[in-house]
Amino acid sequence: MAAYLQITLKISTANRPDAVGVYQKYKAPFLATAAGARSKELLVRDEDVQVLHGFDSKQNAQAYLESELFTTDVVAGLKPLLDADPEVRIYEVA
Hints:
Blueprint: E1 3-9, H1 16-33, E2 37-44, E3 49-55, H2 58-65, H3 68-78, E4 87-92
Helix pairs in contact: 1-3
């Protein structure tokens, strides 16, 4: 079964280039080291930015949220750019 981790971020237009930099910096390490990682996409809308992570299972998506890559690197890089707390959702593919 496949799963998606969707993280929605409120980031001002002025800070979006830096947020894209964080995404680009950690995309390859995510795909290479996160258990069950299949894909990572950056979705940009006027009202927010979403990062959609594809996994082979809900368990691996949940585990990534507790990984050092996410908690130490990604969160630290994005935290100063956020206008609100991120919205995190995990979906299983039906």
